[in-house]
Amino acid sequence: MSGKKVLISGLGIAGPTLAFWLKATGFQPTLVEHAPLLRSGGYVIDFWGLGYDIAERMGLRDEINRIGYHIREMRIVNERGRRVSGFGTRVFRELTGGRYVTISRGALSRLLVEKITDSAEIILGDEIHSLQEYRDCVEVDLARGGRHEFDLVVGADGLHSKVRRLIFGPQDRFEKLLGYVVAAFETTGYRSRDEDVYVMFSDPGRMVGRVTLGDDRTLFLFVFTTDLATSAAPTDLAAQKAMLRARFGDKAWECPQILDALDRTNDLYFDRVSQIRMPKWSRGRIALVGDAAYCVSLVAGQGSALAMTGRFRKDGPWHPSCDEDQPLSGVIPLAYR
After folding, report:
1. How many CB atoms are closer than 10 A to CB 142?
2. Whole-model pTM?
3. Hey, what domains does the chain have and what are their CATH numbers?
4. Which candidate, 329, 302, 326, 221, places its Cα nearest to that of 48?
5. I need a labelling partner for 82 at 20 to 30 A (CA). Which of 4, 9, 175, 244 fits?
């Protein structure tokens, strides 16, 4: 083989970022994503620091600032909606030299994918079924696309990585549950709107936040404690909505109106809050990057930035293309022997 063909599983943040830098150094990336369409839901992230630096080097700074939001206040309210605490974000803009923006994770992913559309092959609605490594290649069996050979395979397929499960073992071997569930959804026409303000209500064991978006949209984010075992967490939409209604079904703050809006949505992001801890992220010609390798969880606030700046260790045929202290996302494997 050419030594240049790389299959990346996952079309979120880490996958398209890695594909961009691989292509820039002469590799031939192919990305496969099991979802039939690019995801648009999820939650908003504060984007700054190393992740912002990498996005700028990819030529995305203007686009990120155009579609992002410049939140001016985090406001904490009580059950009657009265402000009880909070802080302004001006200090963050000053500390970062204005390189600070709030953006939906889905919008950031879409910008990254658009950056590689003309330079990488993208396969939607398919996934890796099996992997078999040989001395000079990895044989990949796609669920719908049949059998192919690649020089390298990278799992950038998130917290519930299938590549990790196929190569390193079951998820519970590496997952540390933090005891929370997170959910998020968008709606249109919600009448309480506070422009450029993140409004949050919380009491022990639960939190719900509201962010005003463009085009008359509003994003809601729930985080709450749970003692559910991994296998007991609900996976179907009706059960997920029922769990949210059970935890937020009182008259505190705007919970009744928020749950009414929840009833009308069919696009709900819902997952447990976990970390992934692994002793190594590669085995031979197969490796992991982003949340698949080192998910720090939603509450860390830096998962997307780490996905963009992540790097492989010097295991086997993998080797960074730049100095160890250079925070560049493009961890490029050298030619193979």
Report:
1. 17
2. 0.88
3. 5-71+102-173+277-309 (3.50.50.60), 175-274 (3.30.9.30)
4. 302
5. 244
